[in-house]
Amino acid sequence: MTEAPLPIIIEVCVDSVESAMNAIRGGADRLELCANLGAGGGTTPSLGFVKSIQDILGEIPIMIMVRPRMGDFIYTEDEIKVMLEDIRIFKKCDIRGIVIGALTSEGRVDVECMKRLVDEALPLEVCFHRAFDMTRDPEEALYDIANIGGISRILTSGHGKTAPSALETLKLLLATRQEIMENDPWGLSIMPGSGVNAQNIHTLLEVLLPLGLKEIHMSGGTWMEGSMAFRRQDMGMGCGESEWSIWRTQEEKVRQVRFAVDSYWQDLINLYPPAPSFGEESEGSNV
Predict the structure, then answer these.
(1) Which long-range contacts does 264-272 make (Cβ < 8 Å, 24+ apart)?
(2) Contacts of 250 by beta carbon, 8 Å cutoff, 6+ apart
(3) Residues contacting residue 151 through CB under 8 Å, at least 6 positions apart
(4) For the segment 123-143, what is each residue's pLDDT rounded down to a tens digit?
(5) Given this structure, which CATH class describes domain 9-227+241-271?
(6) Rounded to the nearest 5°, which phi and psi values hold at 218?
(7) What is the pLDDT of residues 27-85, one digit of tens each?
(8) Alpha helix (H) ranges present in the chain?
């Protein structure tokens, strides 16, 4: 008998307490904590932010981005030392794991750098973030990451601008991941992210769930008008069009995806009724 699928985990990336609370109220299972999410794709959050989230939300599983700056993913020795120190500090907190990624100038995974970071992060979970989508070849990058060891998931848009637009590559990655699972004790998971919303989640689940999809990643965020009434003209801090705006996760956007995921999962569960327990008589049995 084919087993019923497990529930899909929804991870939401946030960079403020307000966004975190919106994500949880909307139904998020896990949070990725970052700074500069809307403007720079996410950098290392402050320790104060992490502790505030834990004080307010309790035991919600938390992954923490460790990325010392915006820009590319080629790091100097000094930057690597900063990342290692951040990992040491965050390991003292009660968190689920660390989110990292490093590349070479040729567009491959920086295996040596990643080994240093992963060794420091273990036994916490380690997620290789969307630096994966900046590699020259997704299959090559997947094998490089699997061979490093200690990495439990890859966050990826499938080398596309959004995950729903790159389903063929995501299918390839999930299929390849199944092939390497026999030699991978870390249970490496492919987690689609970028552009996931209530309008496309059904298609994403329909295509990828049969290939072993276990979790999805989203932000549910948008730029909101800030509350500053006085605004100096021709002045700024380098944030461009978002200078006076605030990036905020929208509770309703997360809730809509949660509802769609749970509804889809429940429909599948209904296709796989539980097997009779041992000794239970089947209908019409004469025994």
Answers:
(1) 264/201, 264/202, 264/205, 264/206, 265/5, 265/7, 265/8, 268/4, 268/5, 268/209, 269/4, 269/5, 271/4, 272/1, 272/2, 272/3, 272/4
(2) 22, 26, 220, 221, 222
(3) 114, 118, 126, 127, 128, 145, 186, 188
(4) 999 999 999 999 999 999 999
(5) alpha beta
(6) -150, 165
(7) 999 999 999 998 878 999 999 999 999 999 988 999 999 999 999 999 999 999 999 99
(8) 17-26, 37-40, 47-57, 77-91, 111-121, 138-148, 167-180, 201-208, 251-269
Residue in the structure block whose two tokens are 């320790």:
47
> For position 172, what pLDDT does the model report?
96
Across 128-142, 191-205, 261-275, least confident range: 261-275
CB 207 within 8 A of CB 171: yes
Q: What tokens does 114 get?
A: 């990643």
Q: How many residues does the chain have?
A: 287
Q: Which token pair is 50?
A: 């992490």
How do the domains of the chain map onto residue ranges?
9-227+241-271
Nearest alpha-carbon partner for 193 in 5, 8, 12: 12
Query: Model confidence at 217, in pLDDT bands (50, 70, 90)?
Result: very high
- Whether residue 248 contacts residue 18, with contact meaning beta carbons closer than 8 Å, is answered with yes
- Helix 17-26, helix 251-269: angle, nearest 10: 30
Mean pLDDT calculated for residue range 155-168:
97
Please give the radius of gyration of the chain, using alpha carbons only, rounded to the nearest integer: 21
Q: Are 156 and 193 in contact (CB under 8 A)?
A: yes
